[in-house]
């Protein structure tokens, strides 16, 4: 049904038709009609962040925690450029993120006149970190452009997308046809592919499942766990796939593929079913990890199959549909029950070794943090030493979409990722972040305060970049440069922003402090002095 609307109103009506309930961004002269329409029309809550990078990271965290489309709104030119890091991370993480950005008046496009925020190559710039970008060239194209890009984002393996809308089109009135969206299509697996994979799994004596983020994208956790139980197959996860099976499940091995004890289990498996994973560098030790058994690879993106490991059989399709198809085709299992027991022993050995490596203080902090966080609470890690050594590997994860980490290994995204996740779910999120990375998005503390986002921010403070210190110490005869930083009193900064904050020195101070942070009505910050903790193996202060 056609309606006379402004372009800004048409954009908002389209977002509402897509089921969007929150948007993250910064109002500007090149998107203000959209924001005004959000205010007048209702149904969408705008979250005003402090930097466009934070806007996209927050939309990304929202998407990962909820499974819905995360939306960021930026200005043209500088605003869109600021958002590039967030789009890069969303692409690496296969996250459902849509960015709407402005553009200069249509009469100035391509003329190089130097008007405000002129960015004639904005669309090509955005295409470097997205799968699809549309530039609106007539006002009536606004709903269709937004819907097409959203459809691309939500179909198959998610990738971010962007739409740019000239500012005069946002003000212009026209007759618009707002699309109606009920559900996004899933990639249908082929029957022959399912049959071949099922035959291989049904006869496996030592089957192993490797579950990636694609399982969570498809909402296939129940099918995965049912298949694992049917086959008696231990389940490894990628870091992105954590939560696909509770890590206290007897068949769960966690994200420990690179640990020698678990590597031996992979080597013993005669069939490995990999679902929704690309086998990233950090989980395969730069692809030196061997998978000698027959590999069955399932993914919605045909392009990732065979890219890093050659499969004996493959299924291109949505993980939920593929796993459901396998369940129908596999009558039972011939697996040796001793293999699952061997895998559990290896898992326990790996976990114990990692706990020993991180030492008693960090193990106690991890345990206290897990005890304070509800089972469905969200843990968001940054690319920092505590995340690498224990947050990504043995901090227990029990529920889907409760584990978030920058897949690109970028430093800095954790706080805005957590804000988006907490706002989207209404559940508390705990942040594990280093002091160096925290400084990149420290302004988003003000966003957390303004919206009373339930985030407990744990800043592990060693006065610099601990990972790089270790690399330099090992590589350059002990010479170090650029890794020691002057850092503020983070607890005082938090209080100045309007949230409770406290400095923590030692495990005994941390335990009651994390309890206070988790019980707070809104955000809370802990500045944890790492010099008061027993150092983790290989990551001392000097």
Produce the secondary structure layout.
Layout: E1 2-6, H1 7-17, E2 22-25, H2 32-41, E3 45-48, H3 52-66, E4 70-74, H4 78-82, H5 84-92, E5 97-103, H6 122-127, E6 132-135, H7 142-154, E7 161-166, H8 167-171, E8 173-177, H9 191-202, E9 207-211, H10 213-218, H11 221-231, E10 235-237, E11 252-254, H12 260-268, E12 271-275, H13 281-284, E13 294-299, E14 313-316, H14 319-329, H15 337-372, E15 378-381, H16 385-391, E16 403-404, H17 414-425, E17 429-434, H18 435-438, H19 444-450, E18 455-461, H20 466-475, H21 490-497, E19 501-504, H22 507-519, E20 524-529
Parallel strand pairs: 2-3, 2-4, 4-5, 5-7, 6-7, 9-10, 9-12, 10-11, 12-13, 13-14, 15-16, 15-17, 17-18, 18-20, 19-20
Antiparallel strand pairs: 1-8
Which class of the largest domain in CATH terms? Alpha Beta
Low-confidence stretches: none
Distance between the first and last residues' Cα: 67 Å
Counted by DSSP, the helix tally is 22
Which band does the percent of strand residues land in? 15-25%
- The structural domain count equals 3
> Biggest β-sheet, characterized?
6 strands, parallel
- Give the % helix: 40-55%
Report the C-alpha radius of gyration, rounded: 24 Å
CATH fold assignment of the largest domain: Rossmann fold
State the strand order across the main sheet.
3-2-4-5-7-6
Q: Name the shape in a single word.
A: globular
Describe the structure.
This protein is α/β, with parallel strands linked by helices. It contains 22 helices and 20 strands. β19 (501-504), α22 (507-519) and β20 form a beta-alpha-beta unit. The model has no long low-confidence stretch (mean pLDDT 95).
């Amino acid at each position: 049904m056609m309606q006379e609307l402004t372009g800004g109103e048409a954009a908002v009506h389209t977002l509402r038709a897509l089921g969007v309930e929150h948007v993250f961004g910064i109002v500007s002269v090149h998107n203000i009609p959209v924001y005004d329409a959000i205010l007048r029309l209702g149904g969408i809550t705008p979250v005003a962040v402090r930097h466009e990078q934070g806007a996209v990271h927050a939309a990304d965290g929202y998407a990962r925690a909820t499974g819905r489309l995360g939306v960021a709104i930026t200005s043209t030119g500088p605003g869109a450029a600021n958002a590039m890091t967030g789009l890069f991370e969303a692409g690496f993480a296969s996250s459902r993120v849509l960015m709407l950005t402005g553009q200069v008046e249509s009469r100035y496009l391509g003329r190089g006149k130097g008007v405000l925020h002129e960015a004639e190559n904005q669309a090509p710039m955005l295409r470097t970190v997205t799968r699809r970008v549309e530039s609106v060239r007539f006002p009536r194209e606004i709903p269709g452009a937004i819907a097409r890009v959203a459809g691309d984002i939500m179909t198959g393996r998610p990738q971010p997308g962007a739409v740019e809308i000239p500012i005069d089109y946002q003000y212009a009135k026209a007759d618009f046809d707002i699309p109606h969206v009920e559900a996004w299509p899933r990639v249908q697996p082929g029957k022959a592919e399912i049959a071949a994979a099922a035959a291989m799994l049904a006869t496996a004596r030592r089957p192993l499942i490797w579950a990636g983020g694609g399982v969570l994208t498809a909402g296939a956790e129940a099918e995965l766990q049912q298949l694992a139980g049917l086959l008696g197959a231990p389940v490894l996860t990628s870091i992105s796939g954590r939560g696909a099976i509770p890590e206290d499940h007897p068949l769960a091995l966690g994200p420990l593929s690179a640990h020698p004890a678990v590597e031996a289990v992979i080597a013993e498996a005669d069939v490995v079913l990999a679902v929704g994973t690309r086998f990233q560098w950090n989980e395969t030790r730069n692809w030196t990890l061997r998978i000698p058994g027959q590999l069955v690879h399932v993914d919605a993106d045909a392009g990732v199959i065979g890219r890093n490991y050659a499969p004996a059989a493959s299924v291109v399709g949505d993980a939920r549909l593929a796993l459901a198809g396998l369940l129908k085709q596999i009558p039972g299992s011939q697996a040796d029950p001793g293999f699952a027991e061997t895998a559990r022993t290896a898992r326990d050995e790996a976990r114990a070794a990692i706990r020993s490596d991180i030492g008693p203080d960090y193990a106690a902090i991890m345990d206290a943090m897990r005890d304070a966080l509800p089972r469905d609470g969200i843990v968001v890690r940054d690319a920092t030493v505590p995340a690498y050594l224990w947050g990504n590997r043995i901090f227990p994860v029990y529920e889907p979409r409760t584990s978030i980490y920058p897949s690109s290994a970028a430093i800095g995204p954790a706080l805005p990722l957590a804000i988006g996740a907490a706002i989207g779910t209404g559940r508390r999120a705990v942040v594990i972040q280093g002091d160096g990375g925290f400084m990149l998005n420290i302004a988003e503390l003000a966003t957390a305060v303004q919206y009373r986002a339930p985030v407990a921010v744990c800043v592990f403070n060693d006065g610099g970049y601990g990972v790089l210190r270790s690399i330099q110490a090992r590589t350059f005869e002990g010479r170090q440069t650029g890794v020691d930083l002057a850092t503020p009193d983070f607890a005082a900064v938090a209080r100045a922003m309007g949230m409770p904050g406290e400095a923590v020195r030692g495990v005994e101070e941390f335990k009651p402090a994390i309890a206070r942070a988790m019980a707070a009505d809104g955000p809370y910050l802990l500045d944890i002095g790492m010099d008061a903790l027993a150092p983790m193996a290989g990551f001392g202060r000097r």
